[in-house]
Here is the input.
Amino acid sequence: MLEVVRNPARAADALGHGQAVELFHDAYRHIVSSTSALEAYRRFFTDLAAEPTRPALFHCTTGKDRTGWAAAAALLLLGVDEEDVFADYLLANRDLLPAFQGLFEQFTAAGGDPEILKPVLGVDPSYLHAALDEMRRHFGSIHGYFSDGLGLDAQAQGELRAALTRSEPHP
Here is the structure.
């Protein structure tokens, strides 16, 4: 990806005309329903529910895609309104895009259109919509995702909810 960003013409060919957005729609669907993702999220949420692993901080390189889905799924499981989940998800643009200002400037100086990079370096509500559509198509609801997709029964989901809402002492 870095090579594409360094070459504005290549970036335009690979990411322009809505291609980047479509790539992310596919990626978010994969995050929700692929076998490897389901196994990884099952481990993640099982570990998160286990007392010895808390408090916990979870992140990835930019903390917006895989981490964004993990945060959205957890919030939805807790009963947070979908509108609020989207508001939280979209904070990535406010908090993350300014960190890439230098990259945007270099790309622009090399003749690139910085708008091509925004779908890659930021988030778009349509990404999370793609994930939620995939979740509903395969599992019906967030509870179906956790039970049928991740294999966490009602008791395990309850333990996860309790773990995420319980106030624990800080060292």
Observations:
- The mean pLDDT is 92.
